[in-house]
Amino acid sequence: MKKTACFIILIALNSFQLFGQNPLMHKVVNLVSGDSIFNNIALLEQMERCTPDNNLECVNHLISSLDNNGMDTIYLQNYTQGWLPNIIAVKYGTLFPDSVYVLGAHYDSYKSGAPGADDNASGTSGVIEAARILSKYKFKKTIMIVLFSGEEIGRCGSKAFTDSIVNNNIKISGMINLDMISYVNNGNNISVSICVNKLSLDLMKIYTNALSVYATNLKYAVDSTSMIVSAGDHSSFWDKNVPAIMLIDEIDLFSNNFNNYIHSNNDILGLSANSKIEAELITKSAVATLINIIEMDK
Ligand SMILES: [Zn+2]
């Protein structure tokens, strides 16, 4: 028992030291810009993103955002005719290309005409911002950026994606899902909830270490039991036994911190997506976690 305890502490210390002592990681993480994330939310909230409506304006915008940033490969996964596709971009690892980690968010909105600024133009923009920065550097392992459609109609996009991964014998080693990262109820602290299952506790530990270095004033809670724990695209990865965490700006459907603007015409920038610093810090901590895992190549 003692040996096991020491081993766990050593792993935790090791990742903490990596976060604290890598100047290049500091430089890269600090490139994450809340302004850049909010500028993209402003564009996305104007675009139709309802999955069955299949309006490709947002798809073209997201593809060109990823393309301009120099990812190695970009492709679409059309899983149901007449629906918006999943958008996938890959930056291959230099040493271990078969070791693959996913950063994802759903870009679809709840209904036709719903602006979906916090849910989930915010997470989508956080992922695009991460891609903008990560694409400029080399990493030993592979990073896959996945923008899912169909989340609001039953996680259809992420289910199709994880099915295809299994069918093609691609092993995903871990996944981080950004789903709503920019809302703070008036007077509350900026915060993040980390939704986990048993399989994802090691990933969560690296993430909380990242928070302790890059987002010290972001309050956090770990959630493994609430109603929303499995209500997101990370859950499709859990179904395939892949470690995954969801980062979300609230935890409890019934607390007064819940964002009641989502799924309505009031899910707009300023009112619902209202905390640029929260979006920036959640994205920074996700980027730091990924860099810690996929390792910078020099
Ligand atoms: Zn959502």
CATH class: Alpha Beta
Tell me, what's the shape? globular
CATH architecture: 3-Layer(aba) Sandwich
Instruction: Give the total of beta strands.
Output: 8
How far apart the termini lie comes to: 37 Å
Quick description:
By secondary structure, the chain is α/β, with parallel strands linked by helices. The protein has helices at residues 2-21, 23-29, 34-44, 57-68, 117-134, 156-167, 201-214, 234-238, 276-294, and strands spanning 73-77, 86-91, 96-106, 141-148, 172-178, 191-195, 219-223, 244-248. The relative contact order is 0.18.
What does this structure look like?
The chain has 298 residues and is of the alpha/beta class. The protein has a single domain (2-294), classed as Aminopeptidase. It contains nine helices and eight strands. An eight-stranded mixed β-sheet has the order 1-2-4-3-5-8-6-7, with helices on both faces. A hairpin with an 8-residue loop joins strand 1 (73-77) and strand 2 (86-91). Helix 1 crosses helix 7 (201-214), helix 3 packs across helix 5 and helix 3 packs across helix 9 (276-294). Residues 1-14 have low confidence and may be disordered.
